[in-house]
Amino acid sequence: MTITLTERAAAQVLRQLEKRGSGIALRIGIKKVGCTGLAHTFEIADEIRPGENCFESHGARLVLDAESLVVLDGSHIDFVTEGLSQRFKFDNPNVDSECGCGESFNVKKPVNATATATATPTAVKTLDLQHEPRS
User: Fold this and answer.
1) Which of 14, 71, 96, 98 shows a CA-CA span of 20 to 30 A to 39?
2) Do 54 and 125 meet the contact criterion of CB atoms below 8 Å apart?
3) Rounded-to-10 torsion of CA 101, 104, 107, 110
4) Max Cα-Cα span within the chain
């Protein structure tokens, strides 16, 4: 299971942690919403919960639960500026379709987190950066 993070995305995570004044990582998850079914969630993590997976890249940590990791496996995360907005942008090979507004997505096939998530919970892993930078 891998997730890649660009230097820009890592810098944004670190800025958010510094701005808040506490926290150890950015927790990324998924929730059911929107036109096509799933959306990303973000929150500052003060701790790693039982069963979560922790990844580190460019000095920034990401924390994901097993279900989210299965859906986001293979994602390349960047932080982009588009017009007046800034956001984390996911290049996720598991996405089948996205809604027109870009707020939600659907995955190619149903995923079963308990059967597929094999990453070691709570172990800090170095993100696979061999594909970086990506244009």
Assistant:
1) 14
2) yes
3) -140
4) 41
Residue 94, CA distances (Å) to 6, 68, 109 in order: 19, 12, 8
Q: Which amino acid makes up residue 115? A: A
- For 76-121, the pLDDT digits (tens) are 899 999 899 999 988 888 877 777 766 778 888 655 544 334 333 3
Rounded to whole angstroms, the Cα distance separating 29 from 107 reads 14
What is the C-alpha separation between 135 and 133, in angstroms, rounded? 7
Tokens for 54?
């922790």
DSSP 49: P
Cα-based distances in Å from 42 to 39, 45, 56, 66:
10, 9, 16, 15
Query: Do 53 and 124 meet the contact criterion of CB atoms below 8 Å apart?
Result: no
Q: Which two tokens stand for residue 125?
A: 């892993």
Domains and CATH numbers, the chain: 4-126 (2.60.300.12)
Query: What are 67's two structure tokens?
Result: 């279900």
Locus of tokens 């932080």: 79
